[in-house]
Amino acid sequence: MTHKPVILALFGCALFSTAAAAADTRSFPAKPIRMIVPFGAGSISDILARTLSVRMGDAMGQQVIVDNRPGAGGNIGAEIVAKAPADGYTILLGAASVISINQHLFKQMPFNQATAFAPITQVTSNTNVLVVSPSLAAKSVKELIAYGKSNPGKLTFASSGAGGSIHLSGELFKSMSGIDMVHVVYKASPLAHIDIMTAQVQLMFDGMPTALPQVKAGKLRALAVTAGKRSALMPELPTISEAALPGYEAIGWFGLAAPAATTRDVVTRLNREAVAVVNAAEVRERLQAIGAEPVGSSPEQFAQFAKAESAKWGRIIKTLGLTLD
Length: 325
Known about the structure:
This protein has about 325 residues and is of the alpha/beta class. The protein folds into 2 domains: about 5-125 and about 250-320, D-Maltodextrin-Binding Protein, domain 2; about 125-245, Periplasmic binding protein-like II (D-Maltodextrin-Binding Protein, domain 2, 3-Layer(aba) Sandwich), CATH 3.40.190. The chain is built from 11 helices and 12 strands. The chain has helices spanning about 45-60, 75-80, 95-105, 140-150, 165-175, 190-195, 210-215, 240-245, 265-280, 280-290, 300-320; strands at about 5-10, 15, 35, 65-70, 90-95, 115-130, 155-160, 180-185, 205, 220-225, 250-260, 290-295. It starts with 5 loop residues before the first strand and ends in a 5-residue tail after the last helix.
């Protein structure tokens, strides 16, 4: 079976080619699919991957196995997918960092982020929430900023990976507020939560799916959300923009991608199954309940969105002078 190559504007530029495609798309999938998550167990992407994998596997008649490969800001796991056979049997559940942002932060990348992946679908859009240690005196964003200015260098903020939206939310806050904060990297949000609870680290701009349970349990204190509008899950929380820093906005997102040379037929099949899962009523309710807004876009829509995000954060990173090596 042959196919004409289909050109698709994706994360910079790319090509769905048949030359490297090993799968017979008429019988795809004929074996289990490996879904690489470039962050640790318990992370937001891990939660999303496990939600998707079971239902996609059921629909396709083959198991979808979640494989956590954290490290290097997500580059370790993403590289596995970028260099995997383009047959649809190794796919990426990636965050904004590994699909659109790391190329602007790392001087040395193990793959070309702009051309390494074939987009499948944007899965969710996620707002982050600013949480602090319950023992910290600050009860509002303005009080946090005042504390930071009075105690330069004493504030530390956690992230679940350098270069991700959680990290960049903190860097943007640091720049716009003019306070001195030290970035501390963890392999996953739950590990950071432990240190914030005990005040070894003071704050984090974490994703709602992992932060909300701790906030509701009183183990973390929420001050504001990072998006441009309030969250329906915690409408009492102001945005950082309205609370203290007009114009501040930072969101996270997650999407599925395959190696760049994957055939259009295989990508279309993966897109169809993933979007069906994201649009299922029980899945949408579950995602919204943890602060993740379901998307389920086409490959073309995801490509355009990811490219725009890369341009946006590239400008911000250059302005702030951020680098990770």
